[in-house]
Design goal:
Order of helices and strands: EHHHEEHEHEHEE
Largest sheet: 7 strands, mixed
Structural class: alpha+beta
Shape: globular
Mean pLDDT: 93
Number of helices: 6
Number of strands: 7
Length: about 180
């Protein structure tokens, strides 16, 4: 494996097509769902979802050739009910909850610390905002490596696999604010 120097930075409008390609490739290949409008609407309108609000961000990991190979996003929308359990929507209300989204790395660039670097940047952004009380995210444990990665950074607040009927099978997490490198 050759050593690659990556740059993590805020996305610009010029990055949006490449970032969207990383995201769509991930939902088709890793999730096996393909594009589902009610779940992935933000992927189509990245500019509206992440670049137009000062409280939202989209960051990219760029390799030495200038190619976008990873993404991460944050917005101020808490988990909606439905489809998420009502107690999570109440615990993580929109406006004061930073939700991590779209932390994806192309397969050939995984296992190099990029996802962790993307998350560090997103958490620093949330801390700098000053208005967020919590950081929430959810993941599909069927995606290889996703659940162990998030368990290494966050605490499980609800595992739908333990619900009667298994819910959607999603695992919900909170990132402890005290553990952020960006918090002083």
């Amino acid at each position: 494996m050759r050593t690659i120097d990556y740059t993590i930075r805020p996305a610009t409008p010029a990055d949006l097509d490449a970032a969207r390609a990383v995201m769509l490739d991930t939902v088709y290949r890793d999730f096996g769902t393909g594009y589902v409008p009610r779940w992935h609407r933000d992927v189509i309108d990245l500019e509206g979802a992440y670049l137009r609000s000062e409280r939202h961000t989209l960051i990219v990991a760029v390799d030495g050739d200038g190619d976008v190979v990873g993404t991460g996003a944050l917005d101020s929308r808490g988990p909606a009910h439905p489809p998420n359990p009502v107690h999570l929507a109440e615990r993580y209300p929109s406006g004061v909850t930073a939700q991590l989204r779209r932390v994806y790395v192309r397969p050939e660039h995984r296992r190099r610390g990029l996802a962790r670097r993307l998350v560090d940047e997103l958490l620093a952004f949330a801390a700098a905002d000053g208005g967020y009380r919590a950081v929430y995210l959810h993941t599909d444990p069927a995606v290889t490596g996703a659940e162990p990665f998030w368990r290494s950074l966050a605490k499980v607040v609800h595992d739908e696999r333990e619900d009667a009927g298994g819910g959607q099978g999603i695992v919900h997490f909170e990132v402890p604010m005290a553990g952020w490198r960006g918090v002083r």
